[in-house]
Every structure is written in structure tokens, then in C-alpha cells.
Task: structure prediction
Amino acid sequence: MKETLEAINQMQADGIIGKYAIGGAVGATFYLEPASTLDVDIFVTLPTVPGGLLLSLSPIYEYLKTKGGRLEDEHIVIGGWPLQFLPANNDLEREALAEAVPANVEDVETWVMTAEHLAAIALRTGRPKDHNRILQFIEQRAMDPKKLQLIVARHNLNSKWEQFERKFLEGKHG
Amino acid sequence: MAKSKMRERLASLSFSEKVKILEKLRDRSRTIEASGLRPKATLGAPKKGN
Result:
């Protein structure tokens, strides 16, 4: 992971990407016990270009190929980890990037989304493994429920939260 | 050790230590896949439920 993060940091320093943060299962591992995953989700902002043209992830892949990266489906493998770059293209993801917290892996500085933003993104994505992750955050008291509720309300996820609550949490409080 | 205690202990490790465990889990998954005991996991499944 050290080599992976060093490559991403260098790419940021070289202006290929703006701010970035680790999300997904690897991001959740910052707060929870490690859970098996095969790839790393990297949420990024891309530098804006004059005229507001549609931005592409191609420069990221082209850059990392010059650093020894190998394409594998929609991932690029660096340092043994397949990376999936996800442009932060909605308010929730942009906020998650803006509020990401610094982390350190083997003396390499990096950024990880807050537990509450990871949970909110998982809520919106809504696959069984995403719901499982939210339950882990709750059961392990790894996030602030009040902060999550503010994010849920701010990003119009109330109905998704109510569905989640009905399905997984009813009868568990008391 | 009770499962909940084990999870707490694992969660309290440093991120670097957790990442080392992630790498072991990843390598184990790849070994199992390569042996044919489990179908290859699909990378790149949809991750955004916008």
C-alpha cells in the first residue's frame, strides 16, 4: 500500500488530480476491523479546465501507466492494489472529500473519508455489503450518529435511512 | 477470545497494521481464486447508487 499511496501523492503533486480521499472498504478499515477487499476506491477531484469541458479519468490512467501501473478492467494496479478512481461528482462526495481526515500508512500521508461520510455513501449505494458496513459502524460505535443524521438530511437520504432503519434496526433499540 | 473482543482489538490497531492485514486477506483471496476453489471475484462492480 505504501507504494500505491506514494504514487497517488506524486500524481497529486504533479497536478493530475486535486484532492483525494480513500473510501469504500479500505476507508472503512480506518475505523473498523479489516474486511477482505480486492481493490481500493479513491475519490478524486479533477482539475478544472477552461470552458468547463467534460473531464475524463484518462490522464490518471495514462500517468500511472508511466509509473508502472497495469490496467485491469476499469482498475489500474499499482503496488499490488487495483485502484478504482471515482470522480466526486455530487454534493455528498464533494463534501466527503472536503472533510476527509489525514491518515498515515507506513509513514506515507494520505486522506480517508470520515466514518459518517463513508456510512452516508454506503447508504446511498445500498448494496447488501454497504448495509453491512453501516451496521458495523453502528455496532462498533465507530461513528457519531448525530453527524450521520445531519449528512443524511443535508443530502436528501432520509427515505433511504428510513428504509434501512426499518429493515435492520427496528427492535434493536430500547 | 470472544468474537466481539477480537473485533474491538482489530479495530483498535493502527491503520498501517490494519492495511497489512488487508494485504494478507487480499492475497489469501487471490490464492483461493487461483486454485479454482472459488470463482474469480468481479472487479469493477457498480459502486455508486446515485
Remarks:
- Helices of chain A lie at 2-13, 24-29, 58-66, 91-98, 115-125, 128-139, 145-154, 158-169.
